Amino acid sequence: MRKSVDLLVFLAAALLTPSFVFAQSVGRGMSFGGLMPLLLIFVFFYLFLIRPQQKKAKDHQKLLNSLKKDDRVIAAGGIYATVSSVKGNIIEVKISDGVYIQVARQSVASVITKEKEAEEAAVKIPEIVKR
User: Fold this and answer.
1) Main-chain dihedrals φ then ψ at residue 119, nearest 5 degrees
2) Residues 108, 95 contacting (CB under 8 angstroms)
3) Torsion of CA 12, 14, 18, 20, to 10 degrees
4) What is the distance between the alpha carbons of residues 114 and 83, in angstroms, rounded to a whole number?
5) What is the distance between the alpha carbons of residues 14 and 54, in angstroms, rounded to a whole number?
6) Model-level pTM?
7) Which of 87, 69, 78 is nearest to 108 (CA)?
8) pLDDT, tens digit, for every residue of 24-44?
9) What are the angstrom distances between the C-alpha of 121 and each of 74, 97, 114, 117?
10) Rounded to an integer, what distance in angstroms lies between the CA atom of residue 57 and that of residue 65?
11) What is the distance between the alpha carbons of residues 67 and 83, in angstroms, rounded to a whole number?
């Protein structure tokens, strides 16, 4: 992925570098050849920046709309909690026994699934061996 991005940046730079080899008349408008670098830049930005960001936002919105009671979530501040109720844009979460807080729906960063819990349990930092 990195090599393809570097190649596209190099090609864009090569196409945008002014060339003084060919004489151009002053009064003519832009031709298709003059628009080509602008089109390439737009396609590059759309493919590598705009479209992935829109997809990520759409997936996050689906995640927020599918929140329900007893889901394990991670809030944007790093708080691990369990959803106790969903009321519009406010979610009440349980962070400990008897400790409930209200957070904005948009502050939920991700939902912890059983697969994620299994991964986190498998990847543990080894304890320091006492000497």
Assistant:
1) -65, -45
2) no
3) -150
4) 15
5) 29
6) 0.61
7) 78
8) 555 555 577 778 889 999 999
9) 16, 22, 11, 6
10) 12
11) 8
